[in-house]
Protein 1
Amino acid sequence: MRPGTALPDLKIEFFAFANVNNTIRLREGRLLVRLSDLLESAPEAVVRAIAHILLAKMYRKPIDRGQSARYRKYVGSHDVVTKQGHVYDLDAIFEDLNRRFFHGLMGRPRMSWSATKTRRILGHYDPAHNAIVISRIFDGFFVPRYAMEYIVYHEMLHLKHPVRLRGSRRCVHSAEFNAEEKLFPQWERAEAFLKRL
């Protein structure tokens, strides 16, 4: 992009934007790049496309159509789309609940929406992939925020209270889990909403 110029110092990080945003700035000879954390698992070719697009925009150069198409195709893919919500931001809800109920000490797992609007599994925590998946049925204006928060809070408790083995039996919801679940201020109201759903 700028032949003959020295490569600036770089600071590149993944950042928890609400959507798939990427930014680039040149400050005092240092290049600061923030990529959406939704792109952490993007293939190298897509990362190269993002780099091309950001640098081209910054230096007001033409953007290669092939690079632009590669990036748009990836961002529109099922893998990225399922991580975004239309109404609710799962990462923001997690961070708010973490601050309110867990003193901000819980590490955030990968948060994503299910591919379909399932009513059978409303949410689940996958310890193998350190991921919380919430049914896309909750990403709607008809769902009150307290119900959305309750679902995420329930899955967060699975991080705090992992499955225990008692002999050959798995204990998914221990007494401690159930007691802490009832500490959610509107748990009865949320449970009633879920039953209606």
Protein 2
Amino acid sequence: MDTGYLTILPQDIDPSVIGPVLCAGLTTYKAVRNSGIKPLEWIVVVGAGGGLGHLAVQYATACGARVIGIDGGAGKRDLVLNQLGATEYLDFTSMSSEDLISTVRKITNGGAHAAVVTAGSAAAFARAADMLRIGGTLSCVGIPPDKESFIRTNIGTIVIRGLTIKGNLVGNLKECLDAVEFVRQGKVKPIVKIRPFRELEEIYKDMQEAKIEGRVVVKIGDDFEV
């Protein structure tokens, strides 16, 4: 094994918790950083209650930002507001895209400073840039399965408002360690549910139906003592 790919991690964190941070946590931490968000500024997180989104909300709040979490269903409201610390929650299942945009602009007095789209849905990306104020940044994370997925903001709007659109995949070693440190200090608390390998098919089904809050860690074998 090439030791250049190994990362030394703190020993005082449960591996089942830190595992998702090395992937989803790093990606969302990088996305929040790339958005250029500053303390007290407004950031929208689309897919706020999901595996990626629930971490993005927490990293943004840990950086001092005010978060508008967007997700589907009233059941996500308590999670996003009370457990994750978002300032506002908007339910996209009960609002049109125009209503979402106008509501965000009203809450933020002209548009959010940044938006992070963590949902792998074409609809989530389509009008996200329209929620931004002048000089705002759209930070893209989720990848829709449909290759014909596009951001549908008018080019004139992007140019006149001076918007920035950034893609985010993963981060570097320092960013990885920074993302872990937020968890170690208790500023970010990944929501993790451990499920047995035999439930793998059911887990995938739950993922497709957007029933999973936070992340699922699949346990391959049974507990044993050495």
